[in-house]
Amino acid sequence: MDYDLVIIGAGPAGLTAGIYASQKTLNTIIIDSGVAGGQPGVLYPEKDIYNFPCFQVVTGKDLSKNFVEHALKEGCVLKEHETVENIMDVGDNLRVVTDKGSYVAKAVIIATGNGFFKPKKLESPGALQFEGHGVYYMVPEKKDFEGKDAVFVGGGNAALEMALMVCDVAKSCTIVHRRECFRADQCVIERVSDAKIKTYFNTAVKEIKGNGKVQEVVLKVDSQPDVTMNADMVVIKIGMSPEIEYLKRWNLELVDNGIKVNCQMMTSRKGIFACGDATNYPGKYKQIVTASGEGASAANSAFKYIKNPYWA
User: Which residue from 18, 38, 125, 105 is spatially nearest to 306, judged by alpha carbons?
Assistant: First the structure.
């Protein structure tokens, strides 16, 4: 079936693009290799989000659910568990080839977010051995932390907010950061300082020990003796590593491992736009609200490209 617009990625950027495109009466399909809703619902479903406008506080899973429901209500067609393999030029149109079929469209918006990225792995001894047995890169459910000694590795919003999410149910909660100060938002840092959370700065994880599962973490503290502490769960949030082979195969110009776009979210290929965390440009600020804003811009640009209205 032919569409006006194919959107690749059903996170906040892609779903917002779908909402705006559908409101402009573009026949729109959104395709995602996983489940719709994006990073908030997958990586931190139970985490409270405090900085999305109109919600003083909302969980990741509820925010994702609202995005999906809104897009469906506007008439977007949504395909989950379908992976895009290629984007081909077909005359003046584009053919999006997936592992389940293909779709011809007048324009494409790429909103893959962190779908083409993977968590940076901790290289300390024991990290690989106990992955899935106490070492995690995707955060387990809050109930899994009940009565457990939890260690979070990282200094950004992700590590701090995850610790805040579980500190009221965990037996103990510790954040380990290799720098002398956190790089998270100040309001998050202040909440951590007021919570029942122990922090280690200028500290690295020297080793993770256990017998079949994590039992201890050895910390190398700058200019001090090593510290050995009990640990049942070690959650690692030290950033993402790009996997850009898919983007290279789609013949898109990249900058710093992200899709290069202009202020109208246009990519280097005619008829293809991009938005959200998959893109990069000077001053890029990766937040849910900015991803949504870029999604709206991409949809508007796609509409002008497809319909060529007199006012564009």
Answer: 105
Q: Model-level pTM? A: 0.84
Give CA–CA dist 239/267, Å, rounded: 25
CATH topology of domain 121-236: FAD/NAD(P)-binding domain (3.50.50)
HEC readout, the chain: CEEEEEEECCCHHHHHHHHHHHHCCCCEEEECCCCCCCHHHHHCCCCEECCCCCCCCEEHHHHHHHHHHHHHHCCCEEECCCCEEEEEEECCEEEEEECCCEEEEEEEEECCHHHHEEECCCCCCCCCCCECCCEECCCCCHHHHCCCEEEEECCCHHHHHHHHHHCCCCCEEEEECCCCCCCCCHHHHHHHHHCCCEEECCEEEEEEEECCCEEEEEEEECCCCCEEEECCEEEECCCEEECCHHHHHCCCCEECCEEECCCCCECCCCCEEECHHHEECCCCCCCHHHHHHHHHHHHHHHHHHHHCCCCC
What the block records as the tokens of 270 is 């005619």
The string of pLDDT tens digits covering residues 48-99 is 888 999 999 999 899 999 999 999 999 999 999 999 999 999 999 999 999 9
Q: Are 262 and 254 in contact (CB under 8 A)?
A: no
For CATH 3.50.50.60, the residue range(s) in the chain are 2-117+240-307, 121-236
79 strand-pairing partners? 31
Q: How confident is the model at residue 138 (pLDDT cuts 50, 70, 90)?
A: confident
- 2-117+240-307 has CATH 3.40.50.2300 classification: no
Question: Which position has the token pair 């059903």?
Answer: 10
Share of the chain above pLDDT 70, in %: 98
